[in-house]
Amino acid sequence: MGCFECCIKCLGGVPYASLVATILCFSGVALFCGCGHVALTGTVTILENHFSKVTSDHAMLTDVIQLMQYVIYGIASFFFLYGIILLAEGFYTTSAVKELHSEFKTTICGRCISGMFVFLTYILGVAWLGVFGFSAVPVFLFYNMWSTCNAMKSSMANLTNIDTICVDVRQYGIIPWNATPGKACGSTLGDICSTSEFYLSYHLYIVACAGAGATVIALLIYMMATTYNFAVLKFKSREDCCTKF
């Protein structure tokens, strides 16, 4: 066998679906965790400077955000390891399916491990659908504020008194109703939208939401690849049992 044929045979054992899913998963998780962490910090800064001047009013929210940031660290670490494991499992199952090694035999343990990854990937896929939906919430809130600011700046608005236009974050349940001032109106609202914290946090939330969506797509690809490989491995094990008799 020449070098070219050997390379073609090796390339045939590469799990391209798992490889694409791993790259997409790493990229999506990195965007979600990195951008989400910075955006949460910016959100706390905006609330403290403009919507809740008393620390005790948003103390619980600050604790929740800090907890979410620690969870982000855990998510990043877990998916880094899980992506590598799934990629290695993809190499294993692809080699089995394509029969690159003539002496290869599937075992019950190997099939159980593949089945476990199929089940776990399905669970993570459903969980990340929830994360994707949850990550869209701050995008919606910031978009409402941004669109309100643009409406005030629009020349077609014909507003006689811009101080009547307000954004009250208390209605979203972010801070309690007794928080002061709790809302921003008119020029104050326009100044908030012009700050770097607002601009950066808004766009980082959008990128984080896109990262969560990319992770969902990566897990869907993992689901299809692992399910197919598990089904073929199970079929091969039955075929091996039949040929023994």
Can you put this structure into words, describing what you see?
By secondary structure, this protein is an all-alpha fold. The chain is elongated, with a radius of gyration of 26 Å. It is built from 6 helices and 2 strands, in the order H-H-H-H-E-E-H-H.
What characteristics describe this protein?
about 240 residues; 6 helices; two-stranded antiparallel sheet; about 75% helix; mainly alpha
Instruction: Provide the spatial order of strands within the biggest beta sheet.
Output: 1-2
Stretches where pLDDT is under 50 for at least 5 consecutive residues are: none
Percent strand equals under 5%
Overall pLDDT level = 80
Helix content: over 70%
Q: What spatial form do the alpha-carbon principal axes imply?
A: elongated
Rg on CA atoms, Å: 26 Å
Structural class: mainly alpha
The count of strands amounts to: 2
Distance between the termini: 34 Å
Main β sheet profile: 2 strands, antiparallel
Give helix and strand order, one letter per element, not per position: HHHHEEHH
- Domains counted in the coordinates: how many? 1
Count helical runs: 6
